[in-house]
Write a structure and sequence with these properties.
about 230 residues; alpha+beta; 8 strands
Protein backbone atom coordinates (compact mmCIF):
# COMPACT_ATOMS: atom_id res chain seq x y z
CA UNK A 1 0.00 0.00 0.00
CA UNK A 2 2.25 2.81 -1.24
CA UNK A 3 -0.26 5.57 -0.49
CA UNK A 4 -0.61 4.44 3.16
CA UNK A 5 3.14 4.12 3.52
CA UNK A 6 3.75 7.66 2.25
CA UNK A 7 1.05 9.07 4.47
CA UNK A 8 2.48 7.25 7.48
CA UNK A 9 5.99 8.58 6.79
CA UNK A 10 4.60 12.08 6.42
CA UNK A 11 2.81 11.74 9.76
CA UNK A 12 5.98 10.51 11.45
CA UNK A 13 7.93 13.47 9.98
CA UNK A 14 5.35 15.94 11.18
CA UNK A 15 5.28 14.53 14.70
CA UNK A 16 9.11 14.64 14.88
CA UNK A 17 9.12 18.27 13.76
CA UNK A 18 6.57 19.21 16.41
CA UNK A 19 8.62 17.33 19.02
CA UNK A 20 11.79 19.23 18.06
CA UNK A 21 9.95 22.55 18.14
CA UNK A 22 8.67 21.79 21.63
CA UNK A 23 12.22 21.05 22.80
CA UNK A 24 13.46 24.34 21.35
CA UNK A 25 10.63 26.25 22.99
CA UNK A 26 11.38 24.58 26.35
CA UNK A 27 15.09 25.42 26.10
CA UNK A 28 14.33 29.01 25.11
CA UNK A 29 11.94 29.39 28.04
CA UNK A 30 14.52 27.93 30.43
CA UNK A 31 17.17 30.31 29.09
CA UNK A 32 14.86 33.29 29.56
CA UNK A 33 14.07 32.22 33.11
CA UNK A 34 17.79 31.82 33.87
CA UNK A 35 18.63 35.25 32.48
CA UNK A 36 15.81 36.79 34.46
CA UNK A 37 17.01 35.06 37.65
CA UNK A 38 20.67 36.08 37.41
CA UNK A 39 20.22 39.80 38.20
CA UNK A 40 18.00 38.85 41.14
CA UNK A 41 20.62 36.40 42.37
CA UNK A 42 23.33 39.05 42.07
CA UNK A 43 21.17 41.57 43.92
CA UNK A 44 20.45 39.04 46.63
CA UNK A 45 24.17 38.27 46.94
CA UNK A 46 24.97 41.97 47.20
CA UNK A 47 22.38 42.48 49.93
CA UNK A 48 23.73 39.50 51.88
CA UNK A 49 27.34 40.68 51.95
CA UNK A 50 28.46 40.87 55.59
CA UNK A 51 31.83 42.68 55.51
CA UNK A 52 32.10 46.38 54.64
CA UNK A 53 34.89 48.97 54.61
CA UNK A 54 34.97 52.76 54.82
CA UNK A 55 37.68 55.25 53.89
CA UNK A 56 37.00 58.85 54.97
CA UNK A 57 38.56 62.27 54.72
CA UNK A 58 38.16 63.99 58.07
CA UNK A 59 37.71 67.57 59.33
CA UNK A 60 38.41 68.22 63.00
CA UNK A 61 38.20 71.13 65.44
CA UNK A 62 39.71 70.93 68.96
CA UNK A 63 37.61 72.16 71.91
CA UNK A 64 38.49 73.36 75.41
CA UNK A 65 42.22 73.55 74.84
CA UNK A 66 44.52 76.54 74.51
CA UNK A 67 47.19 74.59 72.66
CA UNK A 68 45.51 74.33 69.23
CA UNK A 69 42.03 75.64 68.42
CA UNK A 70 41.96 75.83 64.61
CA UNK A 71 39.80 73.58 62.44
CA UNK A 72 41.88 71.32 60.21
CA UNK A 73 41.36 68.95 57.29
CA UNK A 74 44.58 67.01 57.86
CA UNK A 75 42.93 63.73 58.82
CA UNK A 76 41.70 60.33 57.61
CA UNK A 77 39.54 57.53 59.00
CA UNK A 78 39.64 53.82 58.10
CA UNK A 79 37.27 51.14 59.35
CA UNK A 80 36.06 47.64 58.60
CA UNK A 81 32.83 46.21 60.03
CA UNK A 82 30.85 42.99 60.04
CA UNK A 83 27.04 42.92 59.89
CA UNK A 84 26.02 40.97 63.00
CA UNK A 85 22.37 41.56 62.01
CA UNK A 86 20.72 43.54 59.22
CA UNK A 87 20.80 46.63 61.47
CA UNK A 88 23.73 46.14 63.87
CA UNK A 89 27.39 46.06 62.81
CA UNK A 90 30.69 45.87 64.70
CA UNK A 91 34.33 46.11 63.69
CA UNK A 92 37.58 48.02 64.06
CA UNK A 93 38.79 51.51 63.15
CA UNK A 94 41.94 53.60 62.93
CA UNK A 95 42.10 57.33 62.28
CA UNK A 96 44.61 60.15 62.51
CA UNK A 97 44.49 63.91 62.60
CA UNK A 98 46.81 66.89 62.97
CA UNK A 99 45.80 70.38 64.09
CA UNK A 100 48.08 73.41 63.85
CA UNK A 101 48.08 76.81 65.50
CA UNK A 102 50.41 79.79 65.17
CA UNK A 103 51.18 82.06 68.12
CA UNK A 104 52.88 85.40 67.50
CA UNK A 105 56.10 86.57 69.10
CA UNK A 106 55.90 86.93 72.88
CA UNK A 107 58.04 86.65 75.97
CA UNK A 108 57.48 83.41 77.89
CA UNK A 109 58.56 83.03 81.51
CA UNK A 110 60.19 79.62 81.93
CA UNK A 111 61.31 80.04 85.55
CA UNK A 112 61.91 82.87 88.05
CA UNK A 113 65.26 83.49 86.39
CA UNK A 114 64.65 82.40 82.76
CA UNK A 115 62.52 83.75 79.92
CA UNK A 116 62.19 83.13 76.20
CA UNK A 117 61.07 85.57 73.51
CA UNK A 118 59.85 83.78 70.39
CA UNK A 119 56.91 82.95 68.19
CA UNK A 120 55.43 79.42 68.18
CA UNK A 121 54.10 76.93 65.68
CA UNK A 122 52.02 74.36 67.56
CA UNK A 123 51.06 70.92 66.27
CA UNK A 124 48.72 68.37 67.90
CA UNK A 125 48.81 64.88 66.37
CA UNK A 126 46.09 62.38 67.37
CA UNK A 127 46.03 58.67 66.51
CA UNK A 128 42.96 56.86 67.93
CA UNK A 129 42.14 53.21 67.18
CA UNK A 130 39.92 50.47 68.57
CA UNK A 131 36.42 49.06 68.10
CA UNK A 132 33.44 50.61 66.33
CA UNK A 133 29.75 49.71 66.46
CA UNK A 134 26.75 51.14 64.65
CA UNK A 135 22.99 50.71 64.38
CA UNK A 136 21.64 51.41 60.89
CA UNK A 137 18.05 52.38 60.06
CA UNK A 138 16.19 51.83 56.74
CA UNK A 139 18.54 49.06 55.60
CA UNK A 140 16.65 48.55 52.30
CA UNK A 141 16.79 52.23 51.32
CA UNK A 142 19.26 54.16 49.17
CA UNK A 143 19.89 56.51 52.13
CA UNK A 144 20.47 54.80 55.49
CA UNK A 145 20.85 56.88 58.67
CA UNK A 146 22.85 55.39 61.51
CA UNK A 147 24.15 56.08 65.02
CA UNK A 148 27.40 54.65 66.28
CA UNK A 149 30.22 54.85 68.79
CA UNK A 150 33.97 54.27 68.65
CA UNK A 151 35.90 53.12 71.72
CA UNK A 152 39.60 52.46 72.14
CA UNK A 153 42.95 54.09 72.85
CA UNK A 154 44.59 57.24 71.50
CA UNK A 155 48.21 58.18 71.06
CA UNK A 156 48.81 61.93 71.14
CA UNK A 157 51.90 63.97 70.39
CA UNK A 158 51.93 67.72 71.11
CA UNK A 159 54.82 69.66 69.58
CA UNK A 160 55.89 73.29 69.85
CA UNK A 161 58.31 74.61 67.24
CA UNK A 162 60.19 77.84 67.97
CA UNK A 163 63.35 79.38 66.57
CA UNK A 164 65.55 76.59 65.24
CA UNK A 165 64.29 73.94 67.66
CA UNK A 166 61.28 72.81 69.58
CA UNK A 167 59.94 70.43 72.19
CA UNK A 168 57.18 67.85 72.42
CA UNK A 169 55.34 65.59 74.83
CA UNK A 170 53.59 62.29 73.99
CA UNK A 171 50.94 60.39 75.91
CA UNK A 172 48.35 57.62 75.75
CA UNK A 173 44.73 57.80 76.81
CA UNK A 174 41.27 56.25 76.59
CA UNK A 175 39.23 57.34 73.55
CA UNK A 176 35.42 57.55 73.05
CA UNK A 177 33.57 59.03 70.09
CA UNK A 178 29.80 58.96 69.40
CA UNK A 179 28.72 59.77 65.84
CA UNK A 180 25.67 60.07 63.59
CA UNK A 181 25.74 59.77 59.82
CA UNK A 182 24.33 58.59 56.52
CA UNK A 183 25.25 55.67 54.29
CA UNK A 184 24.25 56.43 50.69
CA UNK A 185 24.00 53.64 48.09
CA UNK A 186 23.12 54.93 44.57
CA UNK A 187 22.61 51.34 43.33
CA UNK A 188 21.11 48.83 45.75
CA UNK A 189 22.56 45.92 43.75
CA UNK A 190 26.10 47.17 44.37
CA UNK A 191 28.12 47.23 47.57
CA UNK A 192 29.77 50.63 47.04
CA UNK A 193 28.40 53.94 48.24
CA UNK A 194 29.14 57.20 50.03
CA UNK A 195 29.51 58.02 53.69
CA UNK A 196 29.01 61.24 55.66
CA UNK A 197 29.13 61.55 59.45
CA UNK A 198 29.40 64.06 62.25
CA UNK A 199 31.17 63.13 65.47
CA UNK A 200 32.34 64.24 68.89
CA UNK A 201 35.39 62.67 70.54
CA UNK A 202 37.05 62.76 73.92
CA UNK A 203 40.41 61.33 74.99
CA UNK A 204 41.96 61.29 78.45
CA UNK A 205 45.46 62.19 77.20
CA UNK A 206 47.54 64.52 79.35
CA UNK A 207 50.62 66.41 78.21
CA UNK A 208 52.92 69.27 79.18
CA UNK A 209 53.84 71.85 76.54
CA UNK A 210 55.96 74.99 76.51
CA UNK A 211 53.20 77.23 77.84
CA UNK A 212 50.12 75.15 78.74
CA UNK A 213 49.27 71.75 80.19
CA UNK A 214 46.74 69.56 78.35
CA UNK A 215 44.17 67.73 80.48
CA UNK A 216 42.12 65.68 78.05
CA UNK A 217 41.41 66.24 74.37
CA UNK A 218 37.95 67.20 73.04
CA UNK A 219 37.08 67.41 69.33
CA UNK A 220 34.13 67.87 66.98
CA UNK A 221 34.23 67.19 63.27
CA UNK A 222 32.79 65.43 60.27
CA UNK A 223 33.83 62.72 57.82
CA UNK A 224 33.19 62.33 54.11
CA UNK A 225 34.20 59.19 52.26
CA UNK A 226 33.34 56.01 50.37
CA UNK A 227 31.93 52.62 51.36
CA UNK A 228 32.73 49.31 49.70
Amino acid sequence: HPIFSLTNKKRRFTMKTIYNQNILKTLALAACMLLAFLPQAQAQYASQRKVHFAVDWQMNAPLATDFTDKISGWGMNFEGVYDVTSHFSAGAFLSFHTNHSYVGRQTISLSPTESLTTDQQRSAFQLPFGTTTAYTFCTNSHVRPYVGVKLGAMFGRYTTYFGTGGLYDSSWGFYASPEVGLKIYPNLQKNWGFHIAGYYSYATNRAETLTVDIEGQNNVGFRLGVLF
